[in-house]
Amino acid sequence: MRDIINKILKEEYCISEDELLPAAELRNDLRLDSLDIVELVLKIEDVTGKEIPDSDFAKLITVDDLVKYVEKGE
Predict the structure, then answer these.
(1) Which residue pairs, CB below 8 angstroms and at least 24 apart, start in 10-16?
(2) Is-catalytic flag, 33?
(3) Structure confidence by residue, pLDDT tens digits, 7-37
(4) Rounded distance, CA 23 to CA 47, Å?
(5) What pLDDT does residue 50 have?
(6) Pairs from 3-12 (Cβ < 8 Å, separation ≥ 24)
(7) CA angle 28, 9, 57 (to 5 degrees)
(8) pTM for this one?
(9) Spatial separation of the C-alpha atoms in residues 45 and 13, rounded to whole Å
């Protein structure tokens, strides 16, 4: 799952491999704004088939938080 999420972040948001650390914060380190976050959620939902409610996504701060959340639903 990490590979899928990293691929989305690299291809859609031009984030380099060096920046995609597990502890990288989506907003602060990867510089994703609110619209980027919404688009990211939609892309992950499309690829994984797992719905991520807004209330849950607000709690996901880092790349690792996101990966673990999606993996938990598999």
Answers:
(1) 12/39, 12/40, 12/43, 13/40
(2) yes
(3) 999 999 999 999 999 999 999 999 999 899 9
(4) 23
(5) 87
(6) 4/44, 4/47, 4/48, 5/44, 5/63, 5/66, 5/67, 5/70, 6/63, 8/40, 8/43, 8/44, 8/47, 9/40, 9/63, 12/39, 12/40, 12/43
(7) 60
(8) 0.88
(9) 17
Structural domains of the chain in order of their starting residue, each with its CATH number: 2-72 (1.10.1200.10)
Question: What is the rounded distance in angstroms from the CA atom of residue 17 to the CA atom of residue 59?
Answer: 24
Residue 59 has pLDDT above 70, yes or no: yes
Residue of 3, 18, 33, 64 with catalytic role: 33
> Is it the case that residue 73 has pLDDT exceeding 80?
no
